[in-house]
From TrEMBL, chains A, B:
InterPro entries: Asp/hSer_DH_NAD-bd, HDH_cat, HDH_CS, NAD(P)-bd_dom_sf. Pfam families: Homoserine_dh, NAD_binding_3. GO terms for molecular function: homoserine dehydrogenase activity; NADP binding. It catalyses: L-homoserine + NADP(+) = L-aspartate 4-semialdehyde + NADPH + H(+). Residues 136-315 form the Homoserine dehydrogenase catalytic domain. Belongs to the homoserine dehydrogenase family. One of its GO terms (biological process) is methionine biosynthetic process. Gene3D superfamilies: Dihydrodipicolinate Reductase, domain 2 (3.30.360.10), NAD(P)-binding Rossmann-like Domain (3.40.50.720). Pathway: Amino-acid biosynthesis; L-methionine biosynthesis via de novo pathway; L-homoserine from L-aspartate: step 3/3; Amino-acid biosynthesis; L-threonine biosynthesis; L-threonine from L-aspartate: step 3/5. Keywords: Amino-acid biosynthesis, Methionine biosynthesis, NADP, Oxidoreductase, Sodium, Threonine biosynthesis. It comes from the Bacteria. This is Homoserine dehydrogenase. Its EC number is 1.1.1.3.
Amino acid sequence: MKRVNVALLGLGTVGTGTYKMLQSNQDVIARKTGTLFEVRRILVRDLTKKRKVEGVKHLLTTRFEDVLDAGVQVVIEAMGGIEPTRTYVMKAIEAGCHVVTANKELIAKHGVELEQLARGKGVQLLYEASVGGGIPVLGTLQHLLKANRIHKVSGIVNGTCNYILTQMSEYGRSFDSVLAEAQEKGYAEADPTADVEGFDSAHKLAILCRLAFGVDVAVDDIPRKGITDITVAELEIARRLGYSIKLLAQAEQYGEEGPVALQVAPTLVPLSHPLSGVRGVYNAIHVEGDVVQDVTLVGQGAGEQPTGSAVVEDLCNVYRLPALRAASLRRPMILPAGEESGIQFLLIETEEVLAADVADKWKADLLDTGIQVLDALIYPDHGRSHAAFLVRNWEPRLVSVLPVEWEVSIKRIITRPVLAASVAQEEKEVVSAGSVS
Amino acid sequence: MKRVNVALLGLGTVGTGTYKMLQSNQDVIARKTGTLFEVRRILVRDLTKKRKVEGVKHLLTTRFEDVLDAGVQVVIEAMGGIEPTRTYVMKAIEAGCHVVTANKELIAKHGVELEQLARGKGVQLLYEASVGGGIPVLGTLQHLLKANRIHKVSGIVNGTCNYILTQMSEYGRSFDSVLAEAQEKGYAEADPTADVEGFDSAHKLAILCRLAFGVDVAVDDIPRKGITDITVAELEIARRLGYSIKLLAQAEQYGEEGPVALQVAPTLVPLSHPLSGVRGVYNAIHVEGDVVQDVTLVGQGAGEQPTGSAVVEDLCNVYRLPALRAASLRRPMILPAGEESGIQFLLIETEEVLAADVADKWKADLLDTGIQVLDALIYPDHGRSHAAFLVRNWEPRLVSVLPVEWEVSIKRIITRPVLAASVAQEEKEVVSAGSVS
């Protein structure tokens, strides 16, 4: 039996989940990998804090130097944040340790340099837990779909936002009320900005782009829109038009060396699309490859257990699966968001009540200006109205023209991207005799 | 650049998809794996048959001996069937070749002996394409969820059945009419028995059990029921109760060395479960592990491209990923089907029209005999009726008692298993502060 000594940086949610699984599943791991992993040191900030795991007191230290002195071969980083985490990870790599991390922000912002450092030292840097929690999407892209040209990745990668949108949509509760309750219950952070404004999703999208397309995208270059302006009425209107609204992180590459269109935004997802029914804190990633066509992975995107599972699976793979290829990553040309999508959702909230037949009149007006309208709906809402359209060739400048032309008081006009129907919806007749089974 | 010579056995749907991908994605494969795979020989039955790929004439042979003489390191088996396929695969392994196959029947029935042979010879036997087409479920179980104790696997693994049920459910078409059209279009075989009676799903379930639980299940030991008796009315009734009906292959293990409950049967799946919305020819596998909780993989379960993709991904992994552990597989105790499931769907078709309040009376009668009724529905259907119940503690012997007691002419009584709600539905409050993201 091979023995591997491990250090943990941090004993919060992820660290605790990791430690627990290494104890509870030691027998499975030993049987499947022939390796015994032993935690030899745990870096914490506070030695006196009450811990959720027993028998770790003698392992705790507040000094990073103690970690490297403990003779460990793998350092598991479960601290989060950029500093001092980044410095510790670099020191661990320089000391010849493999590193496993769940830190999406660190990997999104400094992953490329850390990987170069790791390659130079001949060690592995693995970060499955940084995207989609327990969902093994990075391993799938790297090992199980590598002969495919991946051209599109679309994901629900923030459980807090998906929980809020699911509660709003299924129980008609307002954004503020769900968020407040989520904060009270500990589902959402006291400062929810990173989640609800889409920063967290952008971090994960940058990581997905690296694995899927082999390109290096700066987080700041990803057009990003949060979910704070979504109303229950809008969710209901979308549903009536045949869509759910999800905070979607999308990336599409046009040709292997071509530009990449990126976007984190509330997006209309056709109800029959595999991503549409993903509820609550669940995450899901939809991957399109040139030969496999599409594969969707669904699972729990966060929490002590799923994230701990992803960390431990990575730990086992340090010694089993080959490292990332050594090619340096290209900085791709980034296309403006939305330019590539054919259909948009146009929502006009008016201060007055609109008659149902206004839809037809406005539809005709839009058509006159070259906007193709695929569907339209007038939705009354407490003495006001929403006029909703699915349009093609939308012109943003029309936002300033329409209210004048239509002589209505417009409270706001929103446009949102619409995800194209999946292959499943198109029911393509690609399957030849006897092959469907 | 490493060079690997490959032989193809068969140039039907799978063989053609494999050959095409090895041509079209040669550059991607070379870049990612550092290996050039070259097809050196293709075994076919008929040299004169028109082929869907160009420039292969000089590679074709009808003699298996020519394949082994071609100096190949990997044999890709894409012939299907048991003989002479099994003999060829054994000869290839004995000659020291790695084997990649898409043949679910061969692997379900003879996989264990073939794997032993391969281990003895120090070569790999890979068969990702045999379950779920392009969905990398076997690789996921083997490499990306191996530190978890997998305790349950539920899958929609037959695209023909899922296509038929989707068409019946969404367009109200009869089983016979969808099947006839599917046969005409080439979606279903002239003899659809293997698909619609669940044999194909049972083969795949046996393979999943091997990878998920490390047990050796004989295909004949899997209780199996097909989809031929499902009606449009039943699908509609299930929908009104909050379920879709899917042909589900399910396996659950009770404890690591414990018994296994197995079943292929039309099963009610809660509409909010990740498997419920899987439409058309799509396949999906829901995996439950002790730490990761649940992961669902969705994708195209058949067709030239997805299946070819799975074969080629396997081919690349022959030289990259470690082989299966050498442990010999245990024959588990098999539990009778259905015994383990708490809730059942009970559908009673009567020859007469029932009043809506009959539901309450019958519900009370069922309760008197110890059957707990969770939901009930009377559904009129062309001068007849269906009475539907979701029950707990169902007693099969009641089927002969109830008609007499209720004084109605009963056309038929069906019971079906009901899949438990997924973790997502239960909305468990497991997620602690700041961990949902």
